[in-house]
Specification:
18% strand, 12 strands, alpha+beta, single chain, 6-stranded antiparallel sheet, two-stranded antiparallel sheet, 294 residues
């Protein structure tokens, strides 16, 4: 449901099912035209180099880390180049301080499994999951245009109805695919929507950061993943659906729809529907509802 709406949004559905017990990840073709299948690598194969300082570059496995693209609570994302092919990727490396935390590491590896399983133009794609010595990393699509939050901050204006429609259509399409695969994202916000292309082109959004996604049904059984961290409320408070504040494991696709609706309202109006510095007052406001677009 949209905040303030009286009827649900109908999402497009597809009937595809993701049931592979072991995730096979297609790498981009090499310059020689070969394209062997890669499997998630949870043990380093011979010859892989752990993440170490180098005179000119840091490395993990077959990837040279060129520069830092961004960082979050648990991981840092690097622009990386595959040495054999010269192709560039985004490599998300779990921060060393969290490597010994089993729950966080499981959550991180689960993100790689989810991204490798989901194939959709508006969902970020994973090509490899690496666990080498004490370093865990996910190799992802490189998205050039920054985040939706960057775009909003840079433009310093409200988005046009056409721009809002573009983001809504693309992300709803990607979410429909994820929901059909029994994946609930649970943390949709402008920072987790990446944009392909240049500033002067139409918005081409891609949903990323499935780090706190919950796997449901047959996909959970297929990948062997458990719930990420039990009994912990997950998500960014300003964008969370009411039911996320007292989540007892009953979340479904409507929580993602709500969070996306908050993002779209922020694009249209310049602010989120309920904005309180105090968490208690925020929860009361969100659960009470009553927001209306003027």
């Amino acid at each position: 449901y949209l905040p303030g709406a009286t009827s649900p949004i109908s999402l497009p559905r597809n009937n595809s099912r993701q049931t592979a017990a072991v995730v096979d990840v297609d790498p981009p073709p090499s310059p020689r035209g070969s394209s062997p299948m890669l499997r998630q690598r949870l043990v380093a194969p011979p010859g892989d180099v752990p993440l170490t300082e180098h005179p000119s570059v840091r490395r993990i496995g077959p990837y040279d880390l060129i520069s830092t693209l961004g960082s979050g609570s648990f991981a840092t994302v690097y622009l990386a180049r595959q040495r054999d092919t010269g192709l560039e990727f985004a490599v998300k490396v779990l921060d060393a301080v969290w490597e010994q935390n089993a729950a966080i590491r499981e959550r991180f590896v689960s993100e790689g499994r989810i991204c490798a399983t989901l194939r959709h133009p508006h969902l970020v794609r994973a090509y490899d999951v690496l666990a080498i010595d004490n370093t865990t990393a996910i190799v992802l699509d490189k998205i050039d245009g920054g985040t939706l939050k960057d775009w909003l901050d840079r433009n310093r204006r409200r988005a046009t109805p056409g721009e809002v429609r573009c983001v809504a259509t693309a992300i709803l399409s990607g979410l429909a695919h994820a929901h059909d695969a029994c994946v609930i994202h649970r943390d949709i916000k402008p920072e987790n929507i990446l944009l392909r292309g240049r500033e002067d082109t139409a918005l081409a959004p891609v949903l990323t950061d499935f780090g706190i996604a919950r796997l449901r049904g047959e996909l959970q059984l297929a990948t062997g993943a458990r719930h990420t961290v039990h009994d912990v409320r997950m998500g960014t408070h300003l964008y969370m659906a009411p039911e996320q504040f007292d989540d007892r494991g009953q979340l479904d696709h409507r929580a993602d729809q709500y969070s996306l609706a908050v993002v779209l309202i922020e694009m249209l109006t310049g602010s989120v529907p309920y904005d309180h510095d105090d968490l208690v007052h925020l929860v009361i406001a969100v659960k009470s509802g009553g927001f209306r677009l003027s």
